[in-house]
Amino acid sequence: MSKALVKAPKLSPHDRLKQAVSEFEASLSSVQRSQFNKGKAPPTPSDVMKLSEEVDVHLSQKFGGRCFGPRFTNFLQGVQQFAALGDILIGGSQNLIACGVWSLVRFTLLSFVSVSNHVDKLSSIFMDIGRSAPRHQAIAELYPRSTKLQEFLSEYFVVVVRLCHYLCKLGQKSTFGQITSSLNQTTLMGFQTDLEKWASSIREEMRLREAQENSGFREESRSMFKFVTEEQKLAKHRRILAAKAATKNKVLDFFSTYDYETAQKQIRKAGNTSLHKRHVQYQEWKDSPDSCTLIFTGKLGSGKSVLLANIVGDLNLSTAKEPPLVAYFFCRHDIQESLQARTILGSLARQLLRTLSDLEIISENGGNSHIANSTDRILESFLKGYSPSQMTYFVIDGLDECDETERRILVDAFQKIQKKVKALFCISLRIEPNKSLSFITEQLLATRVVPLPEKNPDIDAFIEADLNRCLERELLTIGDPTLIIDIQDALVAGSQGMFLWAALQIQSLCSMRTDHAIRKALADLPKDISQTFARILEKSGSSDPLLQAKTLQVVLAAERPLTTEELREALSVIPGDADWDPSKMLNDVYSALTCCGCLLTVDEEESTVRAVHHSVKQYILHGLDDAKHTSFSIDDAQRMLADIVVTYLGYGVFETQLSRVNNRPIIPQSAPSSILQSAMGSSSTARHLAMKLLASRKQPAFDLSKTIAEVRGSSNCQLETAFKFYAYAKTYWQKHICYVSGHQSSISKLAAKAIQSRTTEIEKDLASLIACGWAAEHGNMKLVELLFQASQHKVDVFNDSSTPLLWAICLGRKDIVKALLSAGADVNKRGLFDAPLGAAVERNDMKMVELLLKSEGIDVNAQNENADSAIIIAARDKDQAIVELLLDTGKVDPNLQSKSGETALTYAAGKGRLGTVKLLLAHGSDPNLKNDIKETALMKAAKYGYVKVVTLLVNNSNVDLNAKDVSGETALIKAVIHGSIEMIELLVKNKDVDLNARNVIGQTALMIAAESRQAKMVELLVNHKDVHLNAKSLYGQTALMSAAALGYKEVVRLLVNNKDVDLNAQDSTGQTALMSAAALGFEGVVRLLVNNKDVDLHVKNSKGKTARMLAKSKNHKKTARWLEPPFLNMASLPQEVEPPLLNIDSLPQEVEVPPEVLVDFETE
Predict the structure, then answer these.
(1) Does 1077 score more than 80 pLDDT?
(2) Would you tell me how many other CB atoms lie within 10 Å of the CB of residue 384?
(3) Which residue in 265, 681, 937, 975 is a FRET match for 875, CA 20 to 30 A apart?
(4) Which residue in 956, 884, 955, 964 sits closest to 926, CA to CA?
(5) Rounded Cα–Cα distance for residues 794 and 803 (Å)
(6) pTM tops 0.85, yes or no
(7) What is each CA distance from 206 to 87, 202, 250, in whole angstroms?
(8) For residues 1160 and 1164, what is the distance between their CA atoms, to the nearest angstrom?
(9) How many whole angstroms separate alpha carbon 570 and alpha carbon 551?
(10) Cα-atom radius of gyration of the chain, to the nearest Å?
(11) Alpha-carbon distance values, 377 to 120, 614, 963 (Å)
């Protein structure tokens, strides 16, 4: 390969890439070339998964349940990004080349896996390549401004094309030829080395460019990218596209930066299943034109996650002309972030929005703001930018792992999405009794529930494939070949549809050395998952139970999965011993993993250690099916990892360890072991160097430094560190530190040192302070005090509107409150809104109030931002017992007023809290204090209809019964407005109540009752001797006028029937009640009035108009007829009687109407 590169030294990297693609295409047959050309369309991110699924489809016939496709994913993502880069930024022939690279990679993989028997080995190599593949999000932004980046990418993909060319040639050989060729790994390793070299160069260039961008070198970097005149427009266009790419990345990062792909890949590798295709409900859901929901339910370990991972693949294999989009999320029990609604919604939105070329709309709507914690904000922004007509599949696994609050937020969001978008949701749930299933089926649209069968047809194939794999790899050794049939039959019979159970039994059988032991195990297989876990832990931990416990504690308590190297260092820490001694480092982390049997697994791609299933953590820490691992508790696990973290950070060697590799000669005999060990980094590296040292003993001039550099591959002089656990400890120390042992002085000192040396790192993270509750509960008050004191160095460290004491009060954590007060926290210090005592009252937390009242220096009258004191808050709507508790201190001022002028009494009266009103009056509350709108307690009680409170206040001699608010309304007027007859009866019976009090426009209670159509109230008031029936408002209107003008016939009748009512009273414009009714066409009211002999029909208003004239002028002809002399006596007839029709339009205004001029209006 190197010779081929030397032959054309003058060609640019881009030209050599073009040449390599051309040579690849030229080597294909006509049939192959046709297949190759079909895949030249620019690939999308979904094409990566589609291709990995196609690989598995080709392999499924050869390898059964084994799944290799995900191993290619990282590498394919790098190729897809390069192709997309060409499509967006390069254009022209270069675009064809970039897409050609994707096409030939796709062609090579599908061709090779169809004929080769070395897919396992090859996929493993591609997985290794994928770890360093150029998959940088910012690459589209920086590409136009970096010639080096363009060259390095071209060089990388030249090697990719050569590798594909080699594999195609190998695949075309006979089976024997393939076997012969595959014996020599030098060529493949050469490709891999070259790819890693160029990937490293790309990473370095990306770091440099990003640093320059962040340092303000943007314009300088642009000026370095020169074009001739005819290319200036293209250069400008590229810069615009690069800016759009930057905006898009910023918006996508606003939605989520969580790695959602790894979980799906890990689960997908577990195997293939076609169970979903056997269910008609799945096909109906998949083909549905409208929003709907499919829910798969199954018992623990029944393969729900694997099923959904396969469904994601199946949906991506769509061959539709416009394939639907697929978004998925697999919750991880060991990553807390993945169990939050914000993370899940943001990740789903990002997957869908990344398919859009322009996200300017979302950016303009604030999509790139820092307000990223609101699920409502996420949902709103997503729905603004996403097309409602786009058919979209959502696949969600593991909702059971989220707590109920997060689940409800998610389901509510899913419902909103289904109403706005054509959204088809597929969800998995455990079959165990829970409220989630019924809640989801009620909320989501068109729900179908599919229970997984206990006799899953796929489990037979799974057991067979796994047994085959173990036999091939010599993991399972048997003497009697027929024993394998007995093993298979026993596992199929005992699995009861649980893939996890079957997999664990197979791994357990692999550890057995004799047929007798295997047969004995088959005769006594565990009945369920819990029993399986118990047996594995008992057997694997018998050799070193302490190491087993420590390993499980660290793995299960970690905030994220630890890598093997991180775990190795963590397990090597002796809690409390801060003297770093590399000789005590655990040489082989796998010895610790062996102590846990097969319950812990190492991911082949990420090298992270995790529980084989979420139920392992549940069983060990919380219990499962009424069974629990009893060797340690969740508190023990938290404490162990916390002690390890603070001890590790206390080593004090990290400041000096970060340095560039320097190849100074080291004499073997004088090299301290600490230098050698710090230079190593892994046990395999140490092993290789040890072998070289053995061989060098006879060579006195042997250069140890050169050997170290060769073994470690440090010629590129990158920054190195021997401490792999440091990054985790530095990131998560605050989450762990509250769990440290409180009764071990060495640990306490190390914890104090960690806090004091990292004061500036203390985050605004309430979750960290929650852990302080644990510390307080376990007697570690000193730690809580230290954290609180450290937080004083930062303004509003925990929340911009709170203090640590207020936060603890709001969470109801009395233990933390005690600790903070003991540490010297100000019991009266207010946040932006609340005072501590008021906050406790607001929560209705009686015990917290009692605790604070006992604190020295407590100010019981402290007020919050709204000037609400504790007694005001309590009186408003809290338990009466808290009101009594506060008043019993004898220090409460019950007459304090809030910013709105409210007192505890006005609040209590306005809420109808009779008992609280009694208490406040007994403790000196002034019943006549008014709020900002001049309302007293009596007015508020009357306003809201609280009769018992009004009764209590009316009978209090100190209450001003006739006080008025800003509108001039008294308690009586407010009672009339509220419409309470019982309350009005109560008030009118009191001789001190002014029944004729007027509001600001001169209205009395009677007038307001009349215009409110309250006939019973009017009757009650009219019949009272002290009520002024003819009182007038500022506009001269009486109660009768108001009722007549509104057409309230029953009210008018009550007033007309009272002999003391002035029927002819006139307002400021000379209008009478009759005129108002006539002018507005209220026929019934007119008839009532004209039937009364005391009503003057000829009275004129200020404009000289009579009632008849007004009716006519307003064209109320039917009403006007009752005012004509021939029919006045008919007004008392029943309402259904109609007068004869009369043409009155042609008559003089005041002329008597003779009978002979009657005409029939029906003819007009």
Answers:
(1) yes
(2) 13
(3) 975
(4) 956
(5) 11
(6) no
(7) 20, 6, 17
(8) 8
(9) 9
(10) 43
(11) 45, 31, 49
- Token output for 896: 């304090």
What crossing angle do the helices spanning 564-572 and 545-557 adopt, rounded to 10°?
120
More confident site: 172 or 1079: 1079
Q: At what angle do helices 683-696 and 704-712 cross, to 10 degrees?
A: 150
Closest by CA to 726, choosing from 655, 674, 636, is 655
Positive or negative CA dihedral for 691, 697, 699, 701? positive
Q: Is the pLDDT reported for residue 1033 higher than 50?
A: yes
Q: How many residues does the chain have?
A: 1164
**Residue 724 carries which DSSP code?**
T
What distance in Å separates the CA atoms of residue 1045 and residue 1029, rounded to the nearest whole number?
A: 17
Residue 460 vs residues 64, 468, 493: alpha-carbon distances, Å: 11, 12, 10
* Average pLDDT across the chain, whole number: 79
DSSP 561: P
Integer Cα distance of 184 and 148 in angstroms: 34
Q: Convert 846-874 to b/e letters by CB count within 10 Å (16 or more is b).
A: eebbebbbeeeebebbbbbeeebbbbbbb
Q: Which residue has the higher pLDDT, 743 or 518?
A: 518
Rounded-to-integer distance, Cα 935 and Cα 969, Å = 9
Which of 509-513, 1018-1022, 1035-1039 has the least mean pLDDT? 509-513
Model confidence at 1160: pLDDT above 60:
no
Helical axes 483-495 vs 515-523, angle rounded to 10°: 20
Helix, coil or strand: residue 277: helix
Q: Give the tokens for residue 626.
A: 């009424």
pLDDT, residue 903, reads 92
For residue 318 the two structure tokens come to 């769509």
Confidence of residue 1072 (pLDDT cuts 50, 70, 90): very high
DSSP 880-928: HHHHHHHHTTS---TT---TT---HHHHHHHTT-HHHHHHHHHTT--TT
Q: How many CB atoms are located within 10 Å of the residue 700 CB? A: 9
Of 3.40.50.300, 3.65.10.10, 3.30.465.10, 3.30.420.40, the CATH number of 258-452 is 3.40.50.300
| Whether residue 676 has pLDDT greater than 60 | no
| Interatomic CA distance for residues 809 and 816, integer angstroms | 8
Cβ atoms 1101, 1075 nearer than 8 A: yes
pLDDT for 821 beyond 90: no
Token pair of 675 as six digits: 């230098």
Q: Which CATH architecture has domain 926-1120?
A: Alpha Horseshoe (1.25)
DSSP H or E run through 1079? helix 1073-1079
The residue ranges of DSSP E strands in 559-689, in sequence order, are: 562-563, 600-602, 608-611, 659-660
Kindly list the domain boundaries of the chain, sorted by start residue: 13-226, 258-452, 458-525, 926-1120
Alpha carbons within 13 A on the beta-carbon side of 821: 21
**One-letter amino acid for residue 218 of the chain:** R
Residue located via tokens 């408002």: 1033
Is beta strand 719-720 parallel, antiparallel or unpaired with respect to 659-660?
antiparallel
Res 453 pLDDT > 90: no
> Helices 73-85 and 45-63 sit at what angle, rounded to 10 degrees?
150
Tell me the C-alpha distance between 1000 and 270, whole Å.
Answer: 81
Bridge partners, residue 602, by sequence: 609
Question: 293 falls in which pLDDT band (50, 70, 90)?
Answer: very high
Compute CA 247 distance to the chain's CA centroid, rounded to the nearest angstrom. 23
Q: What is the mean pLDDT of residues 769-788?
A: 64
Reading the block at residue 113, the tokens are: 């896996």
- Give how far the C-alpha of residue 319 lies from the chain's centroid of Cα atoms, to the nearest Å: 33
Whole-Å CA distances, 200 to 134, 193, 227, 1021: 9, 11, 28, 94
% of the chain surpassing 70 pLDDT: 78
Tokens of 1020: 């009650």
